[in-house]
Amino acid sequence: MEIPTKQQKVVQVAKGLPADVLRIVDAPVERPAPGSGDILVQVRAVAFNHLWKLMPVIPAFLRKLPAVPEIELAGVIADPGESAFATGDEVFGFILTNMLSSDRGALAQYVLMKAIHVVHKPAALSWEAASGLTCSGLTAARALSLFDTRPKKGLRILVAGASSALGRAAIQIAKGQGAYVVASCSAASAEGVRALGADEILDYTASPLPQQLATAYPYDKSRPSESPLALDLIIDCIGADPKLYTQSPAYLAKDGVFVQPGIDTSGGALKTGWHLAHAKWYPGCWAGGVPRTFRFLSVQVADDESLERELAELAGWTQDGTLRMEIDSVHAFDRAGVMTAYERVMSGKARGKVVVRVS
């Protein structure tokens, strides 16, 4: 494969919203250095996440700028470096970095990344679907298993924000493991969510979701053995309403777990910082807090040794029919296309992954 010396990439140049701080620039194509563990990937597609929410929140002096945004991709090995991959191998994965100290990202024609952060792409999987598999799939799988190791068969699980890419992945993986899945979404998304296998659907726009849950899945602490409808696990894919957790003793079993993979950043830097601290260190019942286990989960919380196994498991699920990655829309790799993609993600109305097709 002939590798050019120059490429185009998108960079964030300052703190602010994507339309104000992103630029498409010409840049050199870097090659893997000996001993770095890096590979060079020619990017085919990039899936967008909600990392844009941090662009106007993290002060520029705390970030290494300019930086390439986004982390999920699918592409072709252009230079395998010292890895076991070969030039031309089709792969998918994500760029697992500390965004405060690294300028690496996926939204470019060529990217340097760690070989351990990609696996071979199943031949039948499209570039678009493969690019969006990692974050939603990994986060959903970890939300289901990392903090609640009980067998999922028969467990009652709520997926809040079920029409999001993460929610859609969580429903499919949970159903594949034999769980009973309750999904919350708008009426407009109900048909698509039900098609993924959800057993029950709650319209969160009809009335406050905690109120609906307390009525439909009550937990009576005085008679826990007589609360068969109470939920065992809640996965809050949106993180917009703290009451879903603070009122959870009314519908989440005593040994149940509340997992929040996402967090709302709409209130600005100060409020977001408070939410992050609240999510990580919220006091349990021993300190007068909510008497239910709360766990905040980021896909970036991982160890390299298990990552390859997890990515291979995701690939296997797409091949055996357990997991189908839903694509909301595909956009061009130019300023208009990139901005339209961000607008779609920022609207909160995307039903599945928003993807930019790079090449």
From TrEMBL:
GO function terms (MF aspect): oxidoreductase activity
GO (cellular component) term, any one: mitochondrion
Q: Which domain of life is it from?
A: Eukaryota
Q: Residue ranges of the Enoyl reductase (ER) domain?
A: 16-356
Q: Which Gene3D superfamilies match?
A: Medium-chain alcohol dehydrogenases, catalytic domain (3.90.180.10), NAD(P)-binding Rossmann-like Domain (3.40.50.720)
Instruction: Note the PANTHER family from the entry.
Output: ALCOHOL DEHYDROGENASE RELATED, RETICULON-4-INTERACTING PROTEIN 1, MITOCHONDRIAL
What is the protein's given name?
Answer: NAD(P)-binding protein
